[in-house]
Structure prediction request, 286 residues.
Amino acid sequence: MSTAGKVIKCKAAVAWEPKKPLTIEEIEVAPPQAHEVRLKVVATGVCHSDYYILYEGGKEYGFPCVLGHEGAGIVESVGPGVTRFKPGDKVIPLFVSQCAECPLCLSDKTNQCVKNWTVDEKNMKSKSRFTCKGKVIIQFMGTSTFSEYTVVPEEALTKIPDSAPLDKVCLLGCGISTGYGAAINTAKRSALESTKRAWGVSVIVGWVDVKDVSTKPVDLICGRTWKGSYFGGWKSVQSVPKLVSDYMEKKIKVDEFITHTMPLEKVNEAFELMVTGKSIRTVLKM
Ligand code: ZN
Ligand code: ZN
Prediction:
């Protein structure tokens, strides 16, 4: 029986308040509205940014929320006006959107997009399609992949080949793309050069506290470059399918980073493995 147009009740790991373990809850996921897509999340990686929001600095993003931004899944239904996706498509949700028509998307200097939900954090609450126990649940980074189903705007989603293994390529939704892209897109220099005083480039990736990143002004005055890299500088919608193909042609490594695979229910254990250095990446299967 089709679930299109209906509220779906499903399992999600909810972060009710900062510094408390996630709890598995039944949430309601509303149908997609215009230009939105609802997908069944099949697998999701656990990233340090999820942990950071929960335990170190996430108050400004608000709670309760569903974390997770490194997922892969299958389209369940689409809202009015969606033409690029249909039920059954394999997809990767994107925390950096690519609408392909805003001034930032039309520029080759950046991979940011003004339609990104995370440009205005209020969107994560006002546009959330999640509720639980009568409360709106914030959709972290617009993606919320620690849930069996999620809803994303169509410009924050990309289609990948049917043959792609979702429990592997989910890592291309954040971690591997961010690290690889920071090296080849943003730094564009070798590791050796980046140590040079006059023209080294240091790239900051991931979410960090201001207190964790400091430099002596003299380093910059002398010619070093200090840049941020968001999602590795990739134009997300067009680049992620290429990265998936590169993985499937064995040009980039993904499997080697996955040290643990476990069910969603063990998400707190996955955090523990990550912060104690026992895992590189854990993939949660729904
Ligand atoms: Zn991440
Ligand atoms: Zn755009």
Notes: The chain is about 20% helix and 25% strand. Confidence is low (pLDDT under 50) at residues 207-212.
